[in-house]
Amino acid sequence: MAQAVFIVIGGLTLLAALAVVSLPNVFHAALALVAALLGVAALYAVLGAGYLAVVQILIYVGAVSVLIVLGIMVSERFMGRRPLPFNQQWWLAAGAAVLLFAGLAYLAVKVSWPVTGAQPPDDMVVRLGEALVGRYLLPFEVASLLLLASLIGAVYIARER
Questions:
Q1: What is the total count of domains within the chain?
Q2: Are the CB atoms for 84 and 24 separated by under 8 Å?
Q3: Of 12, 77, 118, 124, which shows the fewest CB atoms inside 10 Å?
Q4: What is the DSSP string of 50-67?
Q5: Phi/psi class of residue 150: alpha, beta or left (left: φ > 0; alpha: ψ in -120 to 50)?
Q6: How far apart are CA 15 and CA 107, in angstroms?
Q7: Which domain holds residue 36?
């Protein structure tokens, strides 16, 4: 049963990720990105990594997606002032993606993956929380300031002169 749920969620996540790179409307692509990130969080939950699922939702779905949508909404392209350029070399990107997928699929099939019964320690969530508010507090805050600076930069670039 869990394997079927994993396959369904994985398939929906892949479809959402495909929509991100194939939709012509940037805003719709951003919404598809939110769906793909929620799918990844659901995959974490199915795999028993509840902490990672919550972090995925809080950081990526909650913060980064809102930042991307806000940046798109204040940009000139979304407002319809400039048409989106069409890239004539899309087939190169598609070929590179197919080659990358083929290489990863080959590795996934040919590598003998070790199966271990190791379980994470019971206090893993506590240790991760202590690390985030202790040793890694400064990098965590610097990342939030970087996101704030990128939002301010997007507003500055998109504003009318």
A1: 1
A2: yes
A3: 118
A4: HHHHHHIIIIIIIIIHHH
A5: alpha
A6: 22
A7: 1-82+145-161
Q: What is the DSSP letter of 47?
A: T
Of 146, 158, 154, 131, the residue nearest 63 (C-alpha): 146
**Token pair 């507003």 in the structure block, residue:** 155
Query: For 7-61, what is each residue's pLDDT tens digit?
Result: 999 999 999 999 988 888 777 888 898 899 999 999 999 988 888 888 888 888 8
Q: What is the pLDDT of residues 51-110, one digit of tens each?
A: 888 888 888 888 777 777 777 776 655 555 555 555 677 788 889 999 999 999 999 999
Token pair 């508010």 in the structure block, residue: 133
139 sits in which H/E element: helix 137-158
Q: Kindly report the pTM of this predicted structure.
A: 0.57
Rounded-to-integer distance, Cα 118 and Cα 13, Å: 28
> Could you tell me if 78 and 157 are in contact, meaning their C-beta atoms sit under 8 angstroms apart?
no
Cβ count within 10 A of residue 13: 19
Torsion of CA 64, 18, 5, 103, to 10 degrees: -110
Give a yes or no: residue 133 inside a domain: no
